Amino acid sequence: MRKLPPLGALRVFEAAARRLSFKHAAEELNVSATAVSHQIRQLEEMLEVKLFERETRQVHLTAAGKALFPVLRDGLDRFEQAIADVRRQQAGKVARLTSTVAFVAKRLAPLAGSFREAYPDWTLRLDASNRTLDLEADADAAIRLGGGHYPGLVTEALFADRFAPVCTPSLAPASLADLKRATLIHFDWGPARRNDHRAPVWRQWLECAGASDVDASARLSFTDEIHAVQAAVAGQGIALLSLTLVAQELASGILVQPFDLTLEGDRYDLVYSPRMAERPATQVLRDWVLEQFEGGNR
Predict the structure, then answer these.
(1) 96 phi and psi, to 5 degrees?
(2) Integer distance in angstroms from the first to the last C-alpha of the chain?
(3) What is the phi-psi region of residue 79: left when phi exceeds 0, alpha when psi lies from -120 to 50, beta otherwise?
(4) CB atoms inside a 10 Å sphere around CB 111
(5) Cα-flanking dihedrals φ and ψ of residue 99, to 5°?
(6) Which residue in 245, 253, 281 sits closest to 99, CA to CA?
(7) Does pLDDT of 7 surpass 80?
(8) Is 55 helix (H, G, I), strand (E, B) or coil?
(9) How many whole angstroms separate alpha carbon 162 and alpha carbon 246?
(10) Of 145, 39, 142, residue with least CA distance to 96
């Protein structure tokens, strides 16, 4: 029979040792800092050894704590992975792919049928979220939009996004001068990129086009890209949009791109955890996504 301290106390110690903070461990475990301190003190009494040196604003591991921490950390990691594996086996052949709400709606959902044809024994679960999900606990792989830097993850480049004015054929301007009388539809990138000169916005496009005399202020503005696309399709104005998200509308002729000038956007990458690389679900998603998107924006 194993003589081990309570698992709860070991979990508290691992969190506090990893973060070197009782406060941050408490936030992670959703308990009070007092509860963390109490659990660790009980563990020290049970082991009859001091695990932390406590100072006014910080804590440090003792030699005993340093010896215990990596063993416990690795054990909990394996424990977590084993539980995840069991859950996946119980769930059957389910491949979980996450991406932004807009990309799932405009690009992945229309392609879902091709996944079913290629992998009839598998269920594709698309998770549309603008949050960054855990690529082990919550998804098998992700298509992310950004600068291509995802430390600790396997990253495979898919394609770079481009932005350009689009509108219904009836609103297509014959020249840049016609934009002076047009309703310009904007997508608001939010506080994080509002002052980023590289963000693909109307002001930047007009400057590149040599049409600085056109008023670039917002006429219609949306905080959701899908709503901006819908407004353009409804003929509400001319929108500066991701050509990735309106690829189907452009191919069908519902929308047109009246000017050749485009702005560079972020790039789309397939990313997944190296620990999941050999998992069947991740391999299936990798093969399918690369077939659909590798080498260019289709």
Answers:
(1) -105, 115
(2) 60
(3) alpha
(4) 16
(5) -160, 180
(6) 245
(7) yes
(8) coil
(9) 11
(10) 142
**Residue 140 phi, psi dihedral angles, 5° rounding:** -90, -25
Cβ atoms of 153 and 273 within 8 Å: the answer is yes
Query: pLDDT tens digits for 36-94?
Result: 999 999 999 999 999 999 887 789 999 999 999 999 988 888 888 777 766 655 556 88
- Please, what are the domains in the chain? 7-90 (1.10.10.10), 91-159+267-293 (3.40.190.10), 161-264 (3.40.190.10)
Q: How far apart are CA 214 and CA 231, in angstroms?
A: 21
290: CB partners within 8 A, 6+ apart = 156, 158, 270
Close Cβ partners of 244 (under 8 Å, ≥ 6 residues apart)? 103, 106, 107, 159, 161, 162, 268, 297
Alpha-carbon distance of 246 to 232, in angstroms, equals 10
Nearest to 237, CA basis, from 277, 292, 178, 197: 178
Amino acid at 90: Q
Contact 65, 43 (CB under 8 A): no
Q: 214, 242, 217: which is closest to 228 by C-alpha?
A: 242
**196 with 275: CB under 8 angstroms?**
no
